[in-house]
Amino acid sequence: MVDICTRFCLLRPLKDKRAATVVFELVKVFSDFGYPTKLGMDNGSEMKNMIMKLLCESMHIDQRLITPYKASSNGTSERWVQSAKLAIAKSVEGAGHQWDLFTPGKNVMSYEQLIERIDVMSDVVFPAIMDKTNAYVDNMKDKFDKYKNIVKDFEKGAPVMVRFPTLKGSLTPSYMGPYTIVRKTKGGSYVLSDETGLLMDRDYTPSELKAISQDNILNEDDGNHIYEIEGILDHRGTGSNIEYKIRWKGYSQEEDSWLRPEMITHEHIIQQYWRRKLGKDYKP
């Protein structure tokens, strides 16, 4: 067994490779040194079994198995296996058939060496890693800030326009709206409402929104009223002279009226009409 951080290695003789024997010895080692948060192992039956799984689950250990048939993914352990064999061969002095009598338990690193290694890790290695990480993060932040626009938070009640995900034509508007910011979600997206106060059916990311001035919004106090369209019934004219017959939501057919496209705030209503009528998108 080897600690990846300090490379501290423990050797314990086992009478067999049964799952219960391996787990029993692991519990003894963990009781002396503390239980780990992660435990890497190969896919052998002595490691990958129900007893080992229960141990890891009960002690909240993250059990990680290496890639099958790829010993190089467990290179640290394989290297220490080679070193352990050399240490055992030196200890038994030729009595290989009685190795367990000569090596009841052996640490490839002494306790004093372990304490010294821990001090070095705490005083030198970990601070160096932290400094290197902070320098890398600062460098990436500078690169990001240099080439990217930082999107500020939109205030509640602020008017915004929503960008179309794809443009259907060169003369198609890039944005639709206006909408009003209702709130910001925990994920950083925004809940919007339309002119009638109806909440939109999905949230929008900051990159999809563009803030606009309140002066660009029609004000009902100035005599400008906003009505909700139930649907487009028909059209007349062509090109720049085209008009649409509008059915207003909450009004009868006697109140139907003809409007030019620029008087309809939501361009997708027009696109929906042409998709239903022609089976394709409308390109002005």
From TrEMBL:
Known SUPFAM superfamilies for this protein? Chromo domain-like (SSF54160), Ribonuclease H-like (SSF53098)
Q: Where would I find the Chromo domain in this sequence?
A: 227-284
One GO cellular component from the entry?
nucleus
Q: Name one GO molecular function term.
A: nucleic acid binding
Tell me a GO biological process for this protein. DNA integration
Q: What is this protein called?
A: Integrase catalytic domain-containing protein
Mind telling me which PANTHER family this protein's record contains?
Answer: PROTEIN CBG26694, PROTEIN NYNRIN-LIKE
Q: Which PROSITE patterns match?
A: CHROMO_2 (PS50013), INTEGRASE (PS50994)
Ranges for domain Integrase catalytic come to 1-90
User: Gene3D superfamilies, from UniProt?
Assistant: 2.40.50.40, Ribonuclease H-like superfamily/Ribonuclease H
Q: Which Pfam families match?
A: Chromo, rve
The UniProt entry, under CDD domains, shows: CD_CSD (cd00024)
Q: Which InterPro entries match?
A: Chromo-like_dom_sf, Chromo/chromo_shadow_dom, Chromo_domain, Integrase_cat-core, Retrovirus_Pol_polyprotein, RNaseH-like_sf, RNaseH_sf
